[in-house]
Amino acid sequence: MRIVIRSFYWCFLFFAFGTGCKNNELQSEAQIRPNIIWLVAEDQSPDFFPMYGDSTISLPNIESLSSDGVVFTNAYTPVPVCAPTRSAIITGMYPTTLGTHNMRTYNAYSTENQPEIGIPSYSPIVPDGVKMFTEYLRKEGYYCTNNAKEDYNFRAPESGWDESSTSAHWRNRPKDAPFFSVFNFNICHESGIWKQGEEDLYISPDSITVPPYFPDNDVIRHDLAVNYSNLKRLDDQLGKIIKQLKEDGLYENSIIFFYGDHGGPFPRHKRALYDTGIKLPLVIKFQDNIKENNYDDQLLSFIDFAPTLLSWAGIAPPKVMQGKARFGVYKDSAENNYIFATSDRFDEMYDKLRAVRTKRFKYIRNYNPEISNALAVKYREQMPMMQNMMTLQTLGKLDSIPSLWFRTPKPEEELYDMENDPFELVNLSNQVQFQDTLVHLRKVLNSWVKETNDLGRTPEKDLITMWFPDGEQPKLKPLQLVEKGDKINLISDKSDATIIWKEPGDVSWHIFSEPLNKNISFTAKAVRIGYTDSDDLLCSID
């Protein structure tokens, strides 16, 4: 036997990053390795759904899932737009800690197509130890699939998924392997308001109740009807996945999430720190449909998703994760008293805001009061509703409440009583009786900014210079191969890099967790968020 190794140079430091431990004494194997499915609706607020009290349109598949599960009434995203949000979901971290808080960083806008801001495409170098949580599941034998949107604001390492494509499905897994499968539904995305605008409507625009923060006219009603119609299309698509689970005998014993990736598709929804932008529809159907109540009002953030899934799988969440396990073996007994949300760059427009919310109050700090909330984001301006509102505002014909969104300057601080003012229309920050609440939440937000190392305090171009002093993504050094007896160990000089490997013919990479046998041919490399992969290490058996 002869081992042929091809790489540019050797590295000699060891790798060391564990996954936590399974605790088989606490739960049976069947309980500790549940199948978990995520059904993700893009750009939707809870107010559009029947389980939250809106009877405008019937969504039978989502309603049935809600009847079998628990409806969460206080679930939030840390950023009201998709790519930063997805970075939080997949890591259990705040985007402002990761450096993924701007929309968008990786694989999107460059100095060529965004000359007005001059920001290149880049993948932020995340803090030490941060990984996609699916790596921990995969190391414990889970088959992890994503169909198909990634969009994490960083380049996803190939360690994250067994499959990530439009054909990814739990049905492709090895026999009896536990699985985690994500299905993303784009039909209800913001762009669907104009792309589906000429399609058949499943509801009459005249039957819709228009929220007070929108003008009531034919354009607004039509766009709202388009969204309800897209939700019907979503329900049909989601129903097919539910049907497949039932056909495979997996529905009852699986944990199923249905959630929106942030607030709704409309102006003052997406990209806004009002609840219309950060509050989410969330339903969880637990194993065997077991539940204590139909509704749960605990405060949840997307950063809680990753540690919760690991907890369900019997894996101790890594200490680097900022979220809390809300269920499972490693459930955190302390409830969330606050959730936090942030705004920075949205495409070509900057507007920095920070917010903290309790169950009753919301505090918002505006760092750029000279800028209207109605940012001139070119992408959104394709929407008829947005065009209509801009025209009415220019002509001075927008009613007082809808015009609040366009006001300049906007207040430096906003405080809302969410129980009595759910649409956040009456700013209480200057009212004497609420000063204690204002001061308290101001201090809570200040502490959070410091404790989480909010990178929004640093201009984006300075962050890029700090991360990439040479002007390009750093590259991991090639792996070191160490032979010991009939085994081969692989070592990366970057202690928190993940080593992945595969044999000829393998479709996906395996995560390296124990020495390999000498009698196989394989390719291996090191990967890490924010770094270019190491050169391939090729070992062949002659």
Task: Walk me through the structure.
Helices cover 22% and strands 20% of the residues. With 542 residues, the chain is α/β, with parallel strands linked by helices. The strands form 4 sheets. Strands 2, 3, 4, 5, 6, 7, 8, 9 and 10 form a 9-stranded mixed β-sheet that branches. The longest helix is centred in the middle third of the chain and has 30 residues. The N and C termini lie close together (6 Å).
Query: In DSSP terms, counting alpha (H) and pi (I) runs of 4 or more, how many helices?
Result: 13
Could you name the ranges where pLDDT drops below 50 across 5 or more consecutive residues?
1-30, 109-113
The overall average pLDDT, rounded, is: 93
> Can you count the beta strands?
21
Radius of gyration: 24 Å
State the end-to-end CA separation. 6 Å
Gross geometry = globular
- Secondary-structure class: alpha/beta
Name some characteristics of this structure.
disordered N terminus, 21 strands, alpha/beta, globular, single chain, 13 helices, five-stranded antiparallel beta sheet, nine-stranded mixed beta sheet, 542 residues
Topology:
Blueprint: E1 3-6, H1 29-32, E2 36-41, H2 60-68, E3 70-76, H3 82-91, H4 95-98, H5 134-139, E4 143-147, E5 163-164, E6 179-185, H6 192-195, H7 218-247, E7 255-260, H8 275-278, E8 279-285, E9 295-296, E10 300-301, H9 305-312, E11 339-346, E12 349-357, E13 361-366, H10 384-394, H11 400-403, E14 413-417, H12 435-451, H13 460-467, E15 480-484, E16 487-491, E17 498-502, E18 510-511, E19 516-517, E20 522-527, E21 537-541
Parallel strand pairs: 2-6, 2-7, 3-9, 3-10, 4-5, 4-6
Antiparallel strand pairs: 1-21, 3-8, 7-8, 11-12, 12-13, 13-14, 15-16, 16-19, 17-18, 17-20, 20-21
